[in-house]
Each structure stands twice: as structure tokens, then as C-alpha cells.
Amino acid sequence: MTEQLAVAVLGAQGRMGIEAVKAVEAAADMKLVAALGRGDSLDTLLDAGAKYVVDLTVPDSTEANVRFAVEHGMHAVVGTTGWDAERLAALRGLLAANPESGVLIAPNFALGSVLASAFAAKASKYFESVEIIELHHPNKVDAPSGTAVRTAQLIAAAREEAGVPASPDATNTALDGARGCDVDGVRVHSVRLRGLVAHQEVLLGGPGEQLTIRHDSFDRASFMPGVLLGLRNVASHPGLTVGLDGYLDLGL
Amino acid sequence: MTEQLAVAVLGAQGRMGIEAVKAVEAAADMKLVAALGRGDSLDTLLDAGAKYVVDLTVPDSTEANVRFAVEHGMHAVVGTTGWDAERLAALRGLLAANPESGVLIAPNFALGSVLASAFAAKASKYFESVEIIELHHPNKVDAPSGTAVRTAQLIAAAREEAGVPASPDATNTALDGARGCDVDGVRVHSVRLRGLVAHQEVLLGGPGEQLTIRHDSFDRASFMPGVLLGLRNVASHPGLTVGLDGYLDLGL
Amino acid sequence: MTEQLAVAVLGAQGRMGIEAVKAVEAAADMKLVAALGRGDSLDTLLDAGAKYVVDLTVPDSTEANVRFAVEHGMHAVVGTTGWDAERLAALRGLLAANPESGVLIAPNFALGSVLASAFAAKASKYFESVEIIELHHPNKVDAPSGTAVRTAQLIAAAREEAGVPASPDATNTALDGARGCDVDGVRVHSVRLRGLVAHQEVLLGGPGEQLTIRHDSFDRASFMPGVLLGLRNVASHPGLTVGLDGYLDLGL
Amino acid sequence: MTEQLAVAVLGAQGRMGIEAVKAVEAAADMKLVAALGRGDSLDTLLDAGAKYVVDLTVPDSTEANVRFAVEHGMHAVVGTTGWDAERLAALRGLLAANPESGVLIAPNFALGSVLASAFAAKASKYFESVEIIELHHPNKVDAPSGTAVRTAQLIAAAREEAGVPASPDATNTALDGARGCDVDGVRVHSVRLRGLVAHQEVLLGGPGEQLTIRHDSFDRASFMPGVLLGLRNVASHPGLTVGLDGYLDLGL
């Protein structure tokens, strides 16, 4: 029988942390050995025998947490934001000195969302036209969403590399805002609607055909399969990986 | 056996006229008695015994065509644009003097599109949020589409009458255009994509639920069922009717 | 200032009841005066001064609850199942003797779902083809859903009344089940997918066009606007009303 | 300046052939040197200096056409059906003796459709649930479509290889056909609707999320970008390639 992964969750009282605790407990191949909240000592991880750390804390804490994990031979799966270029460089240095540890830093753990963005970018050079519609609950304060911006950037880069010209558009009379916003040449439209959570559609069009890649996130639970996939693969990916797509088998 | 309707098509060489000729010829309850193009004399209608006229000409011709039809006791189904308030007033006067004639002027003959707009307006007072996405081929020069503007106006009027507040929106940071344009308080987003024809989605959202009403127009043929429905009903609707919805049984 | 409605929730510890308690408490024009669970005495309603009762209990209790409410001059909004023809007849008799009370029995309180079914039935006589796709979570034990069956029946009745022939279908070679099931001549397809809650699409097709009416229920909260709408309207609808659509302004 | 590809279209009077002639004529990097119909001699290809052949003929002719092309040092892009295992083996033998010729045999030239199937198969091992809905015009005689069957087979193979269990389904009471048909364990639903052309949706679901990959084919023109892509790449792919995906850059 395979040994269970000994997992500790940091930030266990946060909204994501609560879900992660449940997900690890429910996974047959994992064992939750510690669940730390604000103020708990990292030494608890050693006593508990943790080999894997899930960091879902806050930007102020995440760097020290990951450093502690790596220095003690653990692997880390990180969903906390705040990893700027400087922090990433320092972490790479640390990992060079601890070559057996793996760290995954993922801005987005929703498998479907990561796949959708990758597919959209890959397909975009085969179509004349591409636009993005993202739809969220009306309490969201920014538009467009960060995921939509990243998707547009991936698409723009793929099209530029392939030498695909801009999407055709004969519009010469428009109400202000009708054609959405422009992210690196890709039009993005932001819908805000009560009842929704987080949704995104990439529309790709060519003569006589359309390809639509849509992702719906209904619930925070949608991030957990990605967290578990990260835990199962982080040990076999020593060093730093940024982005869950680094662990996905997307070669076709 | 029921007598066939004696139908003449004006503007028979135009794109819509060609479809109308085919549709009338294919309808078992109709007989095409004349198909007039630019320069043909309206007197041909009398020789041919036309009782019903379909006008799919140009703004410069349509008023004289309809006047001729009404003055000679025919009914008219009109898809030509250019009927401003002055022309409509004059036509109402003419019809008052010819009370047996019926005239239908319809800016949109696509049954599905007319139904979609009516349903969206009716539903809109029961939902907190409503937005419109319209999608067209990239050769379209205006944004948003005329149909989207009219749908937004119908929705805005229905919500105002019912005292429904504006759709909630917490956006405080946005790229220019991300949230679409504003038509009477309703957000409208215009997508332009190769491969598309004419499509519209009205999204209505409330706590935990969404209602979506979408219409796709793939082909000019989509207007013909509406033209035929107009011809079959115009005689029983003497006077002027503006909008195909006046002939639809939409009471629920 | 308008007086608040004095509302009691029966079945307040059930999943729906918990939502109803929250919704009534959050409504500015209502006051929650009682929240009864299994075993609580109905006499509590009198002491609390309840004028409106929301019954979200079980088939074994609902009839006695509604009888008590009507006999004591209250109005009742009922979401519990189990109201067969015999029970409805008895209730009509009771209401004839208590003509000031109103009772609404609604199998479905999701406004969007009720509207979607009504719109689909109304539109269906204008299109050659109609099919239904319903999509639910994979724990659902029956297929198709009750809502899909009712929608298909409404559509079938509307088309029969209008003399619309069956949807065209040239299929002569099919894998078993490919074309869905047949409900009164309407094809219904049932999708079961992890992550979904309750969703339904009615697809209507004619030459060159499609009308799609889709309802998504993401959350039990979607039923509460319908419950509140019922409470606000039940007093002005004395006697028995079956179906929330009886209170909706659907005339177009 | 790059030399234009000298292209001949075989089956030039068929529905696909007519589109191919137009597409080749419109492509700046190609020159149409011959357009052959039924009964025309293949020797015309030599006189015309054809270097590339598009075969859109019939199963009875395609093998001889391709053989002629290969034996005369041309490359061939083939959309005709009828290439069974025996014919493919013979063609491989022929190409072994003519190693500079490339032949592409593609059952489907719609880029978007090929991409959609590849993406769906790739994604399917990351989701608990997967189902397919295909939608076509009502004159189609078979259900499900060949593309849906192939997509289901690709998905089933990908999931089996990854050890993913069957999609969960608690259905224990169903009307006959409600849950669609079963293709290698994947549920497929076939909708037939007037107004549609050829459409397919793959729905993938996990906890709290859904990924939808949809392809719409509105028009035969949708096949032409794939034919042109085939022509542009066939010379650099000597030997036999089956399936347009062999030429697509799908590594992610």
C-alpha cells in the first residue's frame, strides 16, 4: 500500500483554508497532520511530521512560511498572492541550496480555468477573430477580471508569435464602451450579474465557424482538485514552478 | 378550400425580396401574382390582381408604394426602413379614409428576435440585474446593433414602470469600455466575430439564478416566417400596426 | 408607512425553511413572528399574531398546517409537495367557507424557471422544432427532471392547440437513446454533471434562426424571491392559486 | 517573393469542390491550375503543371486519384471518405516507394472542430464528469454524428489511460432515452433542430466548476481554412498523415 502524504494546511481558518482542510481529509492518499491558523508556531509542522505544506495565508506571511518549509525539507503548494519578482528570485536561490524540495506557486488553482486559458491561447492563431467575455457577481470591484487580462495577454502573445493580424472590425459608429476594453489588442467585455460567481468565455471565429471555450466557477470548491493535484506532483517537480499548467499534461 | 392570398413582392430583386419571392411561392396558401423591381410600374399590381403587397424596397420608394396599395384596396406588409413620425402620421390619415386596408410596418421580421425582446422586457422587472450581449459579423459598422438598443429601451421602460432600481454594480476600477455601453441604464456589450451573423443574449440575474434569452439569426431566411405571418394576419388587422409583435399572441 | 407583513415559517429547520427565515428577516416589508419546527404547536401562530404562513414542511404535515391557517384567517404560501387532486378539492371547499383567505401552492418558486417555462410554451407554436435539455448534478435519481416534464407538457399542449405538427426529424439510424426521451412528442435530454445544480434549456428552431431560453439555478436562494413575491400577493388573491405564474404579470 | 503553390481541385463541381475552388483562388500564396470534374482526364494535371491536388471526389475515385498524384510527384490533400485499412496500407506502400510525396487524409477539415475534439480529450482526465451534446439540422439521418462518436472515443481512451473512473450517475428512474446513448462509456445526446447546421458541445464537470468546449459550424466555408492549411503543410510532411491534427501545433 502506498504511504499517505503528510500534509499541513497553513491559513486553515481562512475561506480557502477551510476548504483545503476538508479536501485533504477527504483524499484517501493524504493525511492531514496539522492545520495552522494565525499565530500558531511553524515548529508545529516539525512535531507533526509534515512533509507537504499548503500555504493559503496572506502576502505578509507566505514568504516566511515557504522558507521554513524548504529549509526543513518539505514541499510547498502556495495559493497566496504577493510573490513579486524579488521574492521569486530569493526563493529560487533558496531552492538551489535545497535541491530536493519542490515549490508550486499558482495564482489560480481551478483546473478548468487553467485549461481554458491554455486552450484558448493555443487555438487563437488558427482563427481570424477572438474576443473574451467574463461574467462575475456584481460585488466585484475591478473590470476586467485578472484571469481575463491574463488570458488576453496569452492570446495576444500567441497570435503575435504566429503573425496573425488583428481581429477584423469595421465598426465606425459606436456608443462609448460598446466594443469592450482593449487588452493587448484583444477585446474584453465584463458582465456583472447577481447570481453569478466567476465565469469566462473565449469566442474564436473564422469563416463559417466558431469555437467557444467557457469556464464556470460556481464555488470555492472548484480550487481543491487543483490543490490536490499540486500536492501529488510537487515532490516530483523539485525547484520552483509558477502556474498549475506546469504540472498539467497539455501536450497534444 | 380556402382561396390563396394574391401577393405581390415589391423590391423583388433585392436580397430580402429574392427570399420573399421564394417564400411566397413555397407557401401553399399564397399565390405570387407579381414581382416588381426598380422601374416597374405599380399599375402592374392592378393587372395582376394583387390583394397583398410585400414592400422590401428603399426609403425613397416605400411611402408611394404603400399609398398606392392602400388607395387601391390592398393590404401591405412593409420591411423597408425610413418611416419617420411624419410619414407614419400621413399614413394613419390615409388609412382613416380607407378603413378596410391593413398595413404592417415591421423593423424586424425575425419571429424569434421579436419574441426574445418581448420576453426579456417582461421578465426584467423580476430580476435585480440585466445586461445585453449582442454578437455580429465583423463587417457591421455600428455598435451596438439597433435591435440591442431597442431591447435595452424596452427593458429600461419595463423596469422603470415597475420601480425596479438600477442593476447593482460595485465596479470602481475598470479599463475603459470593459463594462460595455449604457443604453437607458442597461449595459450592452457588442462582440464582432468572423463567422457570426446576428445574435443577441439578454442575461437576467437574481439571487442564485440566471435567466438567459438568446436569439440566433443564421440566415436571411429567418425573416420569411415573419413576412408570411404578416401576410396571413394583415387583413384582419385594419389600420396601421407598427411591429410584428402586434400580431403575435403573447398574452400568457 | 406601510405595515409589515407578520410572517411565520413552518418547517423552519429544513433546508428550504432556513433560507426562508433568512429571506423574511431580510425583507424590509416583512416581520418574522414565528419559526416553527417539527413538534412545535400550531397554536404558537396565534400567540405570535401571524397573518401569513410559509409552509415548507413535509407531505404528512402540510394539509393540517394549511387548514389551521385558513381556519384562523391567515394566508398561506406553500412549497411542500403532496397536494394531490383529493387534497386540492378539500382545500377548495375550505376556502369557499373562508373566502377572505388566500392560498398559493407552488411546485416551483424559482421565478426564472417559471418564466422560462411560460415563455417557452408561448413561443413554441411559432417554431418548427423544439427540444429540451435539462442538466443537473449527478446525485439526482430521476431523469428527466419534473420541471422538464412539465415544460414539455406545456409546450406540447400549446403546439397541439395551435395545430403545429411534430418537430421534423429524419433520423433513421440511431444508437439507443441518442435522440433523448419523448414527453408528449417533445424530445428531452438529461445531462448529469458534477459541479452543476439545476439548469434547463429550451431550444426552438425555425428556418435560419434559433431561440434559446435557459434557466440556471445555482443555489437554493433562488427560490426566495418567489416566496417573497408569493407573500406580497397572496392576500390580494383570495381562494386557491396553483403555480407561481398565477401571480406573475405575464401578459405581453 | 515566394512562389505560389500550383493547386488542382478534383471534384470541382461538388458542393465542397466549389468552395475549394473559391478558396484556392482567393489565397494569395496559391494558384489554381486545374479544376477537374467527373469524367475529366487526370492527364490534365500534368499539362497544367499541378504540384498539389485537393481530392474532394467520391469513394470510388479517390484511391486512383491519389495514386496518380503520388506517382507523378505531387502532394495530395484528401477530404473524400472511403479510406479503409486496406486502402491505407496500399497507400503507405506506395508512399514508401515515393518518399518525397506527402498525403493528408482528413475526415474533418474544420479547424475548430478538430481543435475542440483534441482539447476535450486532453481535458477529460481532469474532470469527474463528461458528456457530449451534438446538435444538427433535422434532415440528418444518423444519430449521434460521426464527429461526436469520434470525440467520445478519444475522451474514453484518454480517461482509461489515466485511470479515471466512469462519470458519476445516480439515476435509477429514467424515461427511455433520457440519459442519451452510450459511446464507450461517454453519454452522447443528439438534438435535431430546424435552423441549425452542425454544432457540438463537450461538457466537463468537477466540484464547483464546469468547462465547456463548443464548436459551431455554420457553413461549408468552415472547412476551407483547414484545406488551405493542409496544402501549405503537406509538402513538409512527406508520407501519410491521417487527421488534420497531425499538422496542428497543439503542444502546450
TrEMBL record, chains A, B, C, D:
<feature type="binding site">
    <location>
        <begin position="106"/>
        <end position="109"/>
    </location>
    <ligand>
        <name>NAD(+)</name>
    </ligand>
</feature>
<dbReference type="GO" id="GO:0009089">
    <property type="term" value="P:lysine biosynthetic process via diaminopimelate"/>
</dbReference>
<dbReference type="GO" id="GO:0051287">
    <property type="term" value="F:NAD binding"/>
</dbReference>
<dbReference type="InterPro" id="IPR022663">
    <property type="entry name" value="DapB_C"/>
</dbReference>
<comment type="similarity">
    <text>Belongs to the DapB family.</text>
</comment>
<dbReference type="InterPro" id="IPR023940">
    <property type="entry name" value="DHDPR_bac"/>
</dbReference>
<keyword id="KW-0520">NAD</keyword>
<protein>
    <recommendedName>
        <fullName>4-hydroxy-tetrahydrodipicolinate reductase</fullName>
        <ecNumber>1.17.1.8</ecNumber>
    </recommendedName>
</protein>
<dbReference type="Pfam" id="PF05173">
    <property type="entry name" value="DapB_C"/>
</dbReference>
<keyword id="KW-0028">Amino-acid biosynthesis</keyword>
<comment type="function">
    <text>Catalyzes the conversion of 4-hydroxy-tetrahydrodipicolinate (HTPA) to tetrahydrodipicolinate.</text>
</comment>
<feature type="domain" description="Dihydrodipicolinate reductase C-terminal">
    <location>
        <begin position="114"/>
        <end position="243"/>
    </location>
</feature>
<feature type="binding site">
    <location>
        <begin position="79"/>
        <end position="81"/>
    </location>
    <ligand>
        <name>NAD(+)</name>
    </ligand>
</feature>
<keyword id="KW-0560">Oxidoreductase</keyword>
<feature type="binding site">
    <location>
        <begin position="11"/>
        <end position="16"/>
    </location>
    <ligand>
        <name>NAD(+)</name>
    </ligand>
</feature>
<feature type="active site" description="Proton donor">
    <location>
        <position position="140"/>
    </location>
</feature>
<feature type="domain" description="Dihydrodipicolinate reductase N-terminal">
    <location>
        <begin position="6"/>
        <end position="109"/>
    </location>
</feature>
<keyword id="KW-0220">Diaminopimelate biosynthesis</keyword>
<keyword id="KW-0963">Cytoplasm</keyword>
<feature type="active site" description="Proton donor/acceptor">
    <location>
        <position position="136"/>
    </location>
</feature>
<feature type="binding site">
    <location>
        <position position="137"/>
    </location>
    <ligand>
        <name>(S)-2,3,4,5-tetrahydrodipicolinate</name>
    </ligand>
</feature>
<dbReference type="GO" id="GO:0008839">
    <property type="term" value="F:4-hydroxy-tetrahydrodipicolinate reductase"/>
</dbReference>
<dbReference type="InterPro" id="IPR000846">
    <property type="entry name" value="DapB_N"/>
</dbReference>
<dbReference type="GO" id="GO:0016726">
    <property type="term" value="F:oxidoreductase activity, acting on CH or CH2 groups, NAD or NADP as acceptor"/>
</dbReference>
<dbReference type="Pfam" id="PF01113">
    <property type="entry name" value="DapB_N"/>
</dbReference>
<comment type="subunit">
    <text>Homotetramer.</text>
</comment>
<dbReference type="GO" id="GO:0050661">
    <property type="term" value="F:NADP binding"/>
</dbReference>
<feature type="binding site">
    <location>
        <begin position="146"/>
        <end position="147"/>
    </location>
    <ligand>
        <name>(S)-2,3,4,5-tetrahydrodipicolinate</name>
    </ligand>
</feature>
<dbReference type="GO" id="GO:0005829">
    <property type="term" value="C:cytosol"/>
</dbReference>
<comment type="pathway">
    <text>Amino-acid biosynthesis; L-lysine biosynthesis via DAP pathway; (S)-tetrahydrodipicolinate from L-aspartate: step 4/4.</text>
</comment>
<dbReference type="GO" id="GO:0019877">
    <property type="term" value="P:diaminopimelate biosynthetic process"/>
</dbReference>
<keyword id="KW-0457">Lysine biosynthesis</keyword>
<keyword id="KW-0521">NADP</keyword>
<dbReference type="InterPro" id="IPR036291">
    <property type="entry name" value="NAD(P)-bd_dom_sf"/>
</dbReference>
<dbReference type="InterPro" id="IPR022664">
    <property type="entry name" value="DapB_N_CS"/>
</dbReference>
